[in-house]
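RESIDUES AND SHAPES:
===
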Amino acid sequence: MTATDSQALDRELSLMEARMLEHAAVKELAAFGKLLASKPLDARELKTFFATMGAFFKTVPTGILALALKISDDWMARGDRYGATAMGAYILFADVDEFGLHDLRNGMQRTHHQLFQELTAHLKVSEADMQDPRYLLPVGQILGERTTEYYRHRSIGEALGFHLASEVTSSEEFVYFLNGFLKYKEHYGVKDDADPVLHFFRVHTVVEPMHKSMGRSMIEIYAAQDPAILKQVEAGAMAFCEGFADLFRALNEALSASAPEARRNVG
């Protein structure tokens, strides 16, 4: 790939990311962030939020793992016997944190799922609540199933686009979550800004930008060999954004009658 080709690819991917950030998904997320900042969530709202998000979150770590394996297998099939795992590592990097492997010098750390469980337990959201149809909005399960579908069963291009969009939106998502819960510390039983009970939110505000960067690098490697893959990448990214928009639209409507006003005041 020439320098000119590389610059053109960089521009195309930057435009693709811009389209993700202009999608209704980000507007619905911003409205939800405004909702979290406007008032503390009551017990019913907490159960609805965590049950619905949990149905989505539970599928992400193993989905990433499946995509990393799929990429390694693909490069092995191309004859790159010794470089195949290095290719998979671009995506597997995101799972180092998810699986609690980011600080092995100090032993196994808590996985993101364990951090999520610690937070919900602190907020008195039980596992039964997480499965209760009174709280679990169908959109959470739908996005969870879509996550499994795209990471495990769609083409590599579509899976990479889905993954990129997930990381792009997560960079914004967890900042809203953390700030909203910190604003009402006393209500949520949070001691201070550094309280480890919010580590599930906090850690994502730190790691997501690098996860996004590594996922984008993997797309660049594939697109340098076959630019046509970018159409698949875009399709996967938009599939994620549409599901993400549905998720937060439903949460906004479920958690507050003032959500429509919040959406009108965003952007």
About this structure: The chain is about 80% helix and 0% strand. Residues 51 and 132 are 8 Å apart (CA to CA).
